[in-house]
Amino acid sequence: MSGKCTVQSATIVGVRALPVSVEVAITNGMPAFSIVGMPDASIQEARERVRAAIRFCGFQMPPDKVVVNLAPGSLRKSGSGFDFPIAAAILAASRQIDPDLVTESFLVGELSLEGEVKPVHGMLAHCRCAIENGLDIVCAPSEECAYVADELAVHPVERLSSLRAGGFGRMAPLRVPPTAPAQLDYGDVGGHEVAKRAMQIAAAGNHGILMMGPPGSGKTMLASRLPSILPPLDEAQRLETACIHSIVDDDVESLLAGVRPFRAPHHSATMAGLLGGGNPVRPGELTLAHNGVLFLDELAEFSPHVLQGIRQPLESGKIAITRAAGNVVMPARFMFVAASNPCPCGYHGDPKIPCTCSAAQVNAYQNRIGGPLIDRIDMCIDVGRSEVDEVLDCRGGTDSATLAAGVAAARAFAFERYRRCDHRTVRTVPDMIEVCQMSDEAASLLRAMGKAFNLSGRGIMKVLGVARTVADLGQHEQVGEEDVAEALNLRLRHTGGES
Fold first, then answer.
1. Within its chain, how far is the Cα of 326 from the centroid?
2. What is the spatial distance between Cα 419 and Cα 411, in angstroms, rounded to a whole number?
3. Given this model, what pLDDT does residue 396 score?
4. Where are the domains of the chain?
């Protein structure tokens, strides 16, 4: 017996599914079953799963030499999603099924020993790959595929034996849109009106913010409620973000409902855990926070070399991981929010509880964060402990709906300004100065404070950016002295020095 067949599939590299051709050749010779084309161990193990599934479903494993080539050969492949396309290509090459049934489609799925087709991680990424290549997709029934079934023909297959029927059904598009879960509300936070204002400014302009304060002052509460005042993801962002989370097998329902991701890794996270890595390369927390919020609580407790690794992504909005096999670039454009105690005991600067740390201990603790990282954070605020009455009467404070309305209005105002400037991106200090249109008083204040606090060039850009956002919140075309003063107050901590 001899024959050949080629079907299409894909392998996950970083946050994308790259197309792979599964070529099967059956030739005369000693019985053998080999897979070539830089497969990993999980694909090599597919030989036993495919053999068992084919026999259990009533088909015959060809008694000749079977060679499976995964092309292109220069790309390393990984994952159990090649089980189903390999089995289907073998059956088509041996004419046990009609080759036309599978040769014009995109196949992905893991096989059980009884021939059941199972979904794999990254089904949304596989669907995007099928769309980009103009192919239908044949896979296990999956809710993730139903989200894109209106623009992609999805053919669900539950068992390998279903190929014997000679045709597939088509999955219906999702008629009921995903529902967003209930979110935490700023109305639950007692006091902290100044901090809430800072969070609104951060949300309106996608600014990074660092909160310093004693234990129990409410830093984590303030950060965890930030997604409730951010605008929902648009359609393109929903699919892009959901694809990334699908690869790591996260629930994507809330993302497809428009809720921005909120990632809060523990301070014991490694460099690979934050930036991504492994073999094959998988996204880290920075990429999982793409289009959303990355919150690093207890910032000074993170390993210093791990913290310094996020400096470049904060500027570029992407992560480039270099390996011997090549470079993998993953998106990482997020709002950076951090919280930290000011010292080891936590009470440095507290007006009521004395600090037990020496000056050297305080400096050493704060220096763990590093000046270069702090310089990349737009705002740095002190968060003090609320009074008892403020905590007990928390319902009287500003809620998320009020803050979100201000954020939406500011973003709409900024977009109109951006449109009038022919969608020109601000890249330099002169560009920022032109966009701000500062009054003479505002420019004088910035010049004086910049000299007094030794603001760097990046620091000046950060102050101008925050001042422009403050003006947008006030619906002002020109950045005034009050806008610059508020931006400086959010940039320079009360203890003095540049943040």
1. 22
2. 12
3. 64
4. 3-165, 186-420, 421-499
Examine residue 280 and say whether the peptide bond preceding it is cis (omega within 30 degrees of 0). Answer: yes
Q: For residue 25, give both structure tokens.
A: 């050749």
Amino acid at 459: G
215 Cβ partners below 8 Å, 6+ apart? 341, 346
Sign of the CA dihedral running 450, 451, 452, 454: positive
Tens digits of residue pLDDT in 427-480: 777 878 888 889 999 999 999 998 998 888 888 999 999 999 999 999 999 999
Q: Kindly write down the DSSP assignment for every residue of 125-163, as one continuous string.
A: HHHHHHHHTT-EEEES--HHHHTTTTTS-EEE-SBGGGG
Here the tokens at position 130 are: 């099928």
Residue 15: CB partners within 8 Å, gap ≥ 6? Answer: 125, 243, 244, 247, 283, 287, 330, 331
Nearest to 288 by CA among 321, 319, 325: 319
CATH architecture designation of domain 3-165: 2-Layer Sandwich (3.30)
- Identity of the residue numbered 419: R
Instruction: State both tokens at 37.
Output: 């084309």
268 burial class (0-12, 13-18, 19+ CB within 10 angstroms)? exposed
Measuring CA to CA, which residue among 230, 372, 246, 239 is closest to residue 294? Answer: 230
Are 31 and 65 contacting, i.e. CB atoms less than 8 angstroms apart? yes
Domain 186-420 belongs in CATH node 3.40.50.300: yes
DSSP 456-480: -HHHHHHHHHHHHHHHHHTT-SS--
Indicate whether this model's pTM tops 0.85: yes
Q: How many residues does the chain have?
A: 499
CA 9, CA 4: separation in Å to the nearest integer? 16
Among the listed residues 106, 125, 134, 35, the one whose alpha carbon sits nearest the alpha carbon of residue 77: 35
**Are 334 and 294 within 8 A, CB to CB?**
yes
Contact, 77 vs 71, CB < 8 A? no
